[in-house]
Design goal:
It is a single chain. The protein is of the alpha+beta class. Helix content is 31%, strand content 23%. It is built from four helices and eleven strands. The chain has helices spanning 18-23, 61-82, 93-111, 123-161, and strands at 36-37, 50-51, 164-166, 168-171, 181-187, 198-207, 220-225, 234-238, 240-246, 254-261, 268-278. The protein has a five-stranded antiparallel β-sheet with strand order 4-5-10-7-8, with no helix packed on it. A hairpin with an 8-residue loop joins strand 7 and strand 8 (234-238). Helix 2 packs antiparallel against helix 3, helix 2 (61-82) packs parallel to helix 4 (123-161) and helix 3 packs antiparallel against helix 4. The longest helix is centred in the middle third of the chain and has 39 residues, at 123-161. The termini are far apart.
Length: 280
């Protein structure tokens, strides 16, 4: 009699996974960071999932908003310099002040500590302190955004209604002797969207020969608006004077006749005609 060999019987089991591993191989992937990661098999149609446990409002939205305000303020400042309308610097004071406040407020919001280092405190007190600091930073960001918008509006207002210089062309034969002569001063057409309705015209009449005794104080000029609708239509002024004209809603080119009348024995020259459009 012979006994059956137990090693070759049905009790022998194949090694776990030996059959399935030959058909398809798999590997696991993991991720790390804020939130929980998921695991899955990498295959032809593999998908990855990221679960964010913390709310979006907790992910540094205040510093991001503050940096955005800084970027917008700096960008508008570059645009304003490139498109500078001109005129006296005093009319841009609000632009400068509000832009500076916007940068200071946004910078303070970025630098203000979100968490205060110090001795250990209770969880409730720490939560209250964090909320208070969050409110302060949010107020700073809102303040900076308002200042940025206010500065932009102030610049736009100056660009549309503030004082801007315009080119004035002088035509006619010079110098003008004691018999008198009439010169023409022309202002080029302003941009179509310009809404300024007044012109400040400054005339400078000087001696033709500066080495001779001056005749400036004894020379007069009569300025007449050739363009209809401009008031006053005529005015007699000294050799160096400034006249304000109401354009009456005109937006085109302007022309003025300047009749120079020097004193006997004098020869004069209209050296400069400077124009400023404004609304005041």
């Amino acid at each position: 009699m012979s006994s059956a060999d137990p090693g070759a019987g049905a009790g022998e089991r194949p090694e776990a996974g030996s059959g399935s591993s030959s058909g398809a191989s798999s590997s696991s992937v993991s991720s790390s960071g804020v939130g929980s990661s998921s695991f899955g098999a990498v295959g032809d149609n593999a998908t990855f999932k990221w679960e964010l446990k913390r709310s979006l409002t907790h992910i540094a939205w205040i510093p991001v908003s503050a940096c955005l305000v800084i970027a917008v303020t700096v960008g508008f400042a570059v645009f304003a310099v490139a498109q500078w309308p001109g005129g006296p610097q005093s009319q841009y004071v609000w632009c400068y002040v509000l832009a500076a406040l916007a940068l200071l407020g946004a910078g303070a919001a970025v630098l203000y500590p979100a968490d205060r280092a110090g001795r250990a405190r209770g969880a409730e007190r720490q939560a209250v302190g964090a909320r208070q600091r969050g409110v302060v930073r949010a107020v700073l960001v809102g303040f900076a955004a308002l200042c940025c918008g206010g500065g932009a509006l102030a610049w736009v207002d100056v660009d549309r209604t503030g004082e801007v210089g315009v080119e004035m062309n002088i035509q006619g034969a010079q110098p003008v002797d004691d018999t008198g002569g009439t010169l023409t001063v022309e202002m080029a057409r302003p941009p179509a969207d310009d809404v300024r309705n007044k012109l400040r015209l400054t005339l400078t009449i000087v001696d033709d020969d500066p080495t001779t005794p001056t005749c400036v104080g004894r020379t007069t000029a009569e300025v007449t608006a050739v363009t209809p609708g401009v008031a006053p239509s005529a005015r007699k002024v000294p050799a160096q004077s400034t006249i304000d004209f109401d354009l009456g809603g005109r937006q085109g080119a302007l022309r003025f006749a300047v009749a120079v009348q020097p004193e006997t024995g004098c020869s004069m020259r209209l050296a400069q005609a400077r124009g400023t459009l404004h609304n005041d």
